[in-house]
Design goal:
414 residues, alpha/beta, Peroxisomal Thiolase, Chain A, domain 1, two-stranded antiparallel ribbon, 33% helix, globular
Length: 414
């Protein structure tokens, strides 16, 4: 039995370099950094004082004031990005069976801000003064929950939470829901907003963040020898996935076809990747097998590329393991050099980038690549975008806990 084909028909993004897909893609193709000094709180006592904040975010076109007050920032991001993707797709819920339309949206952490604020209330005024919205505002599944309410969709409604692999897992799960006949349309991706005292402080305690505070726009430098940690960012990336025949019937615009999903676990360490890169390599292999593709078919990899010493070295090793001789013909870039690391939302926005790279024929750059690292020796599309035909793109995501997930997007062929 021939399996269902799944295509991408809508894109939505809120990021530090653009609060919609058009401005986001323009920033990517111009090598623009979204990193700057932290403004969300007084960070003077913290080692890391930089982040990728979404500036001048205004949810009011999509949400009423009372709803804004009852939603944490990560949920607002998801709702607004989903609205953009939904409008882009041209779908209308009153023309669909709402039980055949679903959502999988994940977050690595959810809300730390409401926890910090309400803990202060608890200590100062006691439990009777806690907000009744505390729990529904902090839980990660409120992102897909609110999106389903806003869009009126009643089908599969789920939430992934696998640290930095969350966005890829959410999109991969959505792919499987459609393939398995449980839905015709899925709204999928990731969202995150934890640039808070606890969020920054916790990662500082791990020594995971870049402290290149004097040069924020040069701080995220994946695969560069002088990299010193990742830069935390916030935002959301949401896509509309649709069963091909359903999309054809309504003559939808198709960005590309999602053909492969691979996922593995390292079974090695809480935060460090397995030193051989075996888990990441197998996720890529499984994604290619799922897509019925050979390594030689891949033109571009959007790498996880966090700008940490271990990740970049081991991901490079994993790519070499999978692609062997073809690796010298591959282009690999980390767009986190521009966006910073959106944690649970990273996979969502990087999937959007992969789809646009194919449709626009542009290899996104890795900016801030100045000092080659002998252990990171691939073609990372250094500093400037490159034009070229991209038939197949693979997007990696690797998360704390040993979560690995790879997605494969292919140029659409009727």
């Amino acid at each position: 039995m021939e399996r269902k084909r799944v295509v991408i028909t809508g894109l939505g993004a809120i990021t530090p370099i653009g609060a919609d897909v058009k401005s986001f893609w323009e920033g990517i193709t111009h090598g623009r950094s979204g990193i700057g000094p932290i403004t969300h709180f007084d960070c003077s006592a913290f080692d890391a004082k930089i982040a990728g904040e979404v500036s001048n975010f205004d949810p009011s076109p999509f949400l009423e004031k009372k709803d804004i007050k009852r939603m944490e920032r990560f949920v607002q991001f998801a709702v607004c990005a989903a609205e953009e993707a939904w409008r882009d797709s041209g779908l209308h819920i009153d023309e669909e069976d709402p039980y055949r339309v679903g959502t999988v949206i994940g977050s690595g952490i959810g809300s730390l801000g409401i926890i910090e604020a309400q803990h202060d209330v608890l200590r100062a005024k006691g439990p009777s003064r806690l907000s009744p919205f505390l729990i529904p505002m902090l839980i990660v599944n409120m992102a897909p929950g609110q999106v389903s309410i806003r869009l009126g969709i009643k089908g599969p409604n789920s939430c992934a939470a696998t640290a930095c692999a969350t966005g890829n897992h959410a999109i991969g799960d959505a792919l499987l829901f459609i393939r398995n006949g449980m839905a015709d349309v899925m709204v999928a991706g990731g969202t995150e907003s934890c640039i808070t005292e606890l969020g920054i402080g916790g990662f500082c305690a791990m020594k995971a963040l870049s402290t290149r505070n004097a040069e924020p726009q040069k701080a995220s430098r994946p695969f560069d020898r002088e990299r010193d940690g990742f830069v935390m960012s916030e935002g959301s990336g949401i896509v509309i996935l649709e069963e091909l025949e359903h999309a054809r019937r309504r003559r939808a615009h198709i960005y590309g076809e999602i053909v492969g999903f691979g996922l593995t676990g390292d079974a090695y360490h809480m935060t460090a990747p397995a030193p051989t890169g075996e888990g990441a390599a197998c996720a890529m292999k499984f994604a290619l097998q799922d897509g019925r593709l050979n390594p030689e078919d891949v033109d571009y990899i959007n790498a996880h590329g966090t700008s940490t010493q271990l990740n970049d070295k081991i991901e490079t090793l994993a790519i070499k393991t999978v692609f062997k001789d073809h690796v010298r013909r591959l282009k690999v870039s980390s767009t986190k050099s521009m966006t910073g690391h959106l944690l649970g939302a990273a996979g969502g926005i990087e999937f959007v980038i992969s789809a646009l790279a194919i449709t626009q024929g542009v290899y996104p750059p890795t900016i801030n690549y100045e000092y080659p690292d002998p252990e990171c020796d691939l073609d990372y599309v250094p500093n400037e975008p490159q034009e070229g035909t991209i038939r197949v793109a693979l997007s990696n995501a690797l998360g704390f806990g040993g979560h690995n997930a790879a997605l494969v997007v292919k140029a659409f062929e009727a």
